[in-house]
Records
---
Amino acid sequence: MDLSLQEYVKGHGYELLFYDNRGTDKEAFANHDCKVIGIGSYLDDHEKKKAIYHEIGHKEHTSRQYELNRELCELQADRNMIHHLLKEELSYLDNVNEFNYARFMEKYKLKTIADEKMVIDEYYTLIG
């Protein structure tokens, strides 16, 4: 696990735990009351990174908000994930204009129209 990713989690005041996710459909979880993020230890590095950024994206959501508007909360968490993945990806490029959003989406297995829209929006937000 990338040390900077662990620092990112700690910077938000959370503890990162890994658990055996074999045989479960739950790849990650967050307990915001206890400030714990659990990540399946059998996920590949890209999936772990996606899960961490996504779960931190729920940081400001209350259980009541989530109950009333789950879809919006999930989209906000996905946007947080995409923002941080994209920020990292752009840091590797000498010229941010060479960014290919289709390859980025393929790399991180982002498949929905909503994902595509968020990738494009976040790209333009990040490059100014």
---
Amino acid sequence: MTKVNKLSTTKLWNPKSFIIFSVFFSFLPAGIMCALNYGRSGSQKKKWIFLLASILVFIALIALLPILSINTSIIFFSINIALGIILMFTQLKLYNKHIQNGGQSASYLLPVIIGLLIFSLSAASILYSIYVPKNALDYGENHLFYTNKITESQAKKLGDYLNSEGYFTPSSKVDVKIDKQDTLYILSLVVEGDYKSDTSYVQPMKAISRELSKNVFENNKVRIDLCNDRFQVLNSINVD
């Protein structure tokens, strides 16, 4: 009698919702729900296996996607759907039996909160990786970041030029980034101050742009972006 009462009061999440959570948030909250369902059903071993596997796969996916040169959004979406379907099918039988035995469906308030939190953290991580490339050359405490559209030799040529011209010094701590769009090179400089209303820096930056075009980038145009410390653009300076 005690066992029947325990089963009837146990609440599990419907596995069909795993796909919805995977699409809108990612497969991680679905994996957590799946793991907790096992735990509530008395299978502690499966709970920890699914919980740890979901977390590790999610971390690996977030780490790998930014370094791929293909369309990562499609891959991320496809993997989430596929894993959501797999998680659903692993628990359909368990859930149906649970309902037949008088069990109840669990509230989705906690999964939604977890999903929003995970979505926020993963979005922040992806945005950070978009603005701050993993490729970098170090000149003392100065760092030159470059995207996959720039070769290491091009980045080194730029870094050596900045170093020889005194932009990088032994006592400075400067971060710059170089990117490319078609034939246009984009040099991002981390700056402080009001660079939106102050126009006194525009002509000096245009002069630097022309110098880099001539001495580093084989007369291709160079746009200079003034950015915050995460390389989000505050102002762009184009040379006519």
